[in-house]
Amino acid sequence: MAEEREVLEVPLNGNPRADTQGETAPGAIPSEKSYEFVADDVTSNRTNSVKRMLIKEYRKIGRGAFGTVVQAYITPNKENWYGPFAIKKVPAQTEYKSRELEILRVTDHPNIVKLEYFFTHVSPSDNKVYQHLAMECLPATLQIEISRYAHNKMELPLKHVKLYSYQIARGMLYLHAFGICHRDVKPSNILVDPSSGVLKICDFGSAKKLEPDQPSISYICSRFYRAPELILGSTQYTTQVDIWGLGCVIGEMLVSKAIFQGQEPLLQLREIAKLLGPPDKKFIFFSNPSYDGPLYSKPLFTGTPQSRFEKYFGKSGPDGIDLLMKVLVYEPQTRLSPRRILAHPFFDDLRREKYFFPRDHAQPVNLPDLFNFNEFELQILGDFAERVKPSQEEHSQ
Q1: Average pLDDT in the 212-222 region?
Q2: I need a surface site. Which of 64, 74, 128, 338 has the fewest CB within 10 A?
Q3: Cα dihedral sign for 325, 286, 96, 181?
Q4: Is residue 76 part of a domain?
Q5: pLDDT band, very low/low/confident/very high, at 123 (cuts 50, 70, 90)
């Protein structure tokens, strides 16, 4: 039976910034009230070795539909402390649990959160078994970063919007090549390190590998980011629902708030129609032949959709407006694919310039490595690789 006790944190040798497995930290673990327990089956995702380890949880950092997330350190001997990690706890023996673990065990990409360890533990509060997923930890979410700027009556700089959008699209290029659909793309499920510009997609609790001709539930994705085919009840959707989510996230970074805020699911379609115009009847039929909700077939605005996009997202410039108009599209098959997004001129600045100014920094810092594609990524990019990567002249600047 696992040991467990409530203790007051004592400073130990550890560094809150060290987030690689097996790395011992100099410095002190935060002195906060913590909860300790021993887990017998801590499995390393890198080596598959199983060890008995002490887990020290010291801060709750999130709560979602499928579980809670805490910040924690792990040690095999009370001398070498690994972490900090973000440990997600979800009830064991559920379909979602096995899916999330299965996906995180095989994904390995700079823009996907890394699973370092996993183990089970019986919670003392309800005596149920919980799966624990110990993942790398980043300082903030994109939601927090957008909110910080908004709170100070500022907008996220356009260079940051491009930097973060590009990395989300690169993560999607990788996931979608495996048929993995995240199904809950939103700013709070995207981790960022504002000082380095690094971004990682997280929370795969709703993710699923979509099989051709196999139905999936339509009531998925948080409402404000839900693709129109899902709102209509489609069960034969594709990974393009994530591309819609990406468009919503880019729009939110530009205007500092969710761009489609329907107060209930069917009103969400009305909010979309305010920007895109009425959905086509063929799109509605092919999404769900039995849909009998409101059609919003009459225009809810004067002028063209292009003028609406320019009004709302003018800050992004002609390239940003063009990208959004090719991503926020009713028909999923006509939304840009990840590789076409990565090759879009909106990201030419990232190909030309190697620097950006993090928030509160007076000096520029190097951009993270955005073009270190492995062979698998280059294979997916195909002919687009040369359009995505900087030219030699750009790279030498």
Answers
A1: 90
A2: 128
A3: negative
A4: yes
A5: confident
